[in-house]
């Protein structure tokens, strides 16, 4: 895990010239646009750093809910089941376990559900290997997100298979490519 000073991160510029936002600034932007934000608590292994980060995130989201009910649409996630379960109920939309490619998605989904989580975020490789995994996980009463998906064709496949959410690193680019006449897509969902 890198230790870049906050000031150095704030000096970085995004492609549009703005600085890298803090989580609070990102939450404000997302709330103004009524968009949806997925947070992820790392490190994957959990431990003291993961627990501390989860407490800080939970506190921030709780304070925001007290002052601005219904402003945020946030899903809290982690690769670590204990950390993800500690955040269950802190997000305004869902709490999710992110399932690494080498982990059995059916076992992970049952464990997530049993710990009070509402979603699992599968890796695209899970779905590519076994299209039926989405149906099985949803039958457990758990919603399914898949990510990271940046290819429009793969996003369409995930939608056809019934995933509840596709996570992408490039929402603008994916939406733009989905609308292009070459791909034959309509408006983004």
Automatic annotation (TrEMBL):
Gene Ontology terms describing biological process: lipid metabolic process
Highest taxon in the source lineage: Bacteria
UniProt GO molecular function: phosphoric diester hydrolase activity
Annotated ranges, domain GP-PDE: 1-178
Pfam families: GDPD
Name of this chain's protein: Glycerophosphoryl diester phosphodiesterase family protein
Organism name: Geodermatophilus tzadiensis
């Amino acid at each position: 895990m890198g230790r870049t000073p906050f000031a150095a991160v704030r000096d970085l510029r995004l492609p549009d010239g703005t600085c890298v936002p803090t989580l609070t600034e990102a939450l404000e932007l997302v709330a103004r646009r009524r968009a949806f934000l997925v947070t992820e608590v790392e490190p994957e292994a959990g431990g003291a750093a993961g627990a501390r980060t989860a407490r800080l995130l939970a506190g921030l989201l709780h304070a925001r809910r007290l002052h601005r009910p219904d402003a945020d649409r946030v899903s809290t996630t982690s690769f670590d089941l204990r950390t993800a379960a500690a955040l269950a109920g802190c997000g305004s939309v869902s709490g999710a376990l992110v399932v690494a490619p080498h982990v059995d998605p059916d076992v992970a989904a049952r464990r997530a559900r049993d710990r009070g989580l509402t979603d699992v975020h599968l890796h695209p490789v899970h779905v590519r290997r076994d299209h039926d995994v989405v149906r099985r996980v949803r039958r457990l009463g758990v919603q399914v997100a898949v990510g990271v998906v940046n290819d429009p064709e793969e996003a369409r496949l995930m939608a056809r298979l019934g995933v509840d959410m596709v996570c992408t690193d490039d929402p603008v680019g994916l939406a733009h490519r989905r609308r292009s006449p070459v791909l034959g897509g309509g408006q983004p969902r």
